[in-house]
Amino acid sequence: MTAPDINDLLARNAAWARKVEESSPGFFKGLAAQQAPKYLWIGCADSRVPANEVVGLAPGELFVHRNVANLVQLADLNCLSVVQFAVDRLQIEHILVCGHYGCSGVRAALTGDRIGLAEHWIRPVRDTMDDYRDELAALPDDDARADRLCELNVLRQTRNLIHTQTIQDAWARGQALSLHPVIYGLKDGRLRELTQPITADNQNVILPKG
Ligand code: CO
Predict the structure, then answer these.
(1) Nearest to 41 by CA among 19, 23, 63
(2) 84: CATH
(3) Given 63, 144, 174, 175, which residue has the most CB atoms within 10 angstroms?
(4) Residues with catalytic annotation?
(5) Which residues have their alpha-adjacent CB atom under 5 A from ion ligand 1?
(6) Are residues 111 and 181 in the same domain?
(7) Within 10 A of 200 (CB to CB), how many other CB atoms are there?
């Protein structure tokens, strides 16, 4: 089977837009006038983790930022701008920081595989690995270590998010906002929570050691 070409994609798009408009007349006009999503998704760029689809949200319901290995880095103006716009302007109420098992970015950090420029990008994952070296070494094999590092990475990135000025300011002014570290299973399509929802009151629960 050959992959669809660009004309196929444009035809699929036309068919999709028709179908949406048929089932919800005025859908696109309404969305064009404003967006009011309640959720921000920060996830991996991986093609197997399509944000809207896995949580069943329609266009207009999920604000999305994705990068390799779902990192929240305090020097990343792209990610920080998305977070600020979502929290300050859109007043979103929930942020899902979503990692996934089988993440090749995380795996490369673990194995030291050469993957080019992305090696620099995933350097923070190696730092997390170093911080949890003993816990990871105690696991039976590289697959188990990779799975655990995917989880630890989500927790670390959530902690980075907690430390942003945007989140701290939002909580300080009493804005209702909770963070949800979650991990997606490529093998079963399921999302799992890694901690209870995090709010201003329990923001220290995450990553007690390391
Ligand atoms: Co990934």
Answers:
(1) 63
(2) 3.40.1050.10
(3) 63
(4) 44, 46, 48, 100, 103
(5) 44, 46, 103
(6) yes
(7) 16
Residue 207 pLDDT: 63
List 136's β-bridge partners, or say none. none
Sort 60 into a burial class: Cβ within 10 Å, 0-12 / 13-18 / 19+: middle
Question: Residue 183: what pLDDT?
Answer: 98
Q: Which amino acid is at 176?
A: A
Given pLDDT bands bounded at 50, 70 and 90, which one contains residue 98? Answer: very high
* Cβ-based neighbours of 157, under 8 Å, separated by 6 or more: 42, 70, 71, 72, 97, 99, 181
How many CA atoms lie within 13 Å of 154's alpha carbon, on the beta-carbon side?
28
pLDDT the model gives residue 208 = 53
Structure tokens given for 71: 């990192």
Helix (H, G, I), strand (E, B) or coil at 117: coil
> Are the beta carbons of 193 and 111 closer than 8 angstroms?
no
d(CA 141, CA 48): 24
For residue 43, report the distance from its CA to the centre of ligand 1, in Å: 8
Q: What angle do CA 34, 83, 159 make, to 5 degrees?
A: 150
For the segment 140-192, what is each residue's pLDDT rounded down to a tens digit?
999 999 999 999 999 999 999 999 999 999 999 999 999 999 999 999 999 99
State whether 3 and 87 are in the same domain: no
107 Cα–ligand 1 center, Å: 9
